[in-house]
Amino acid sequence: MRLVFALIAMMMVFPVHAVEPDEILDDPVLENRARELSKGLRCLVCRNQSIDDSDAELAKDLRVVVRDRLVAGDSDDEVIAFVVDRYGEYVLLKPRFSIGNAALYLGGPVLLIIGGFAFRRMTRQPAEATAAPVKAPAPLSEEERAKLASLIGKGD
């Protein structure tokens, strides 16, 4: 029984590739290039899984396209450009740096910093509250005392 568990544990350690035997190229150099390119392309069905690891039909189709382009003599960059032109930049597991990507990566932290400044400003005490203590009011003049006395007297 321990042997079965050991075999299962060993199978979980090694990565499983979904490349089928009929896809493998005869030329080992081209096959290695195809595998490296496939590791950097996203399966559009499985989301964050490379086409090299995915069993989806679309991933298989993409693996075949990559191999066909390599057999046709395309360079690695030309193969990637071909796939990106057809499926968009989303197909890349590591997207290229661009202004649009920079806005996505930097937008969150910038908004967080702006929100922190706004929160700080809203919760900070006004300048008047932190100023020196207020002096006692000046004493009332005779005229003001008379007026006050008449007002208080009318309240009775």
What keyword list fits this structure?
mainly alpha; Helicase, Ruva Protein, domain 3; 156 residues
Summarize the structure.
With 156 residues, the protein is mostly helical.
Describe the structure.
It is a single chain. With 156 residues, this protein is mainly α. Among the domains are: 17-91, Orthogonal Bundle (Helicase, Ruva Protein, domain 3), CATH 1.10.8.640; 98-123. The chain is built from six helices and no strands. The protein has helices at residues 2-13, 28-39, 57-71, 76-87, 99-123, 142-154. Helix 2 (28-39) crosses helix 3 (57-71) and helix 3 (57-71) packs antiparallel against helix 4 (76-87). The longest helix is centred in the last third of the chain and has 25 residues, at 99-123. The mean pLDDT is 81.
- Mean pLDDT figure: 81
> What would the principal axes of the Cα set say about the shape?
elongated
> CATH homologous superfamily of the domain at 17-91, by name?
Cytochrome C biogenesis protein
Number of strands: 0
Structural class: mainly alpha
Major sheet: none
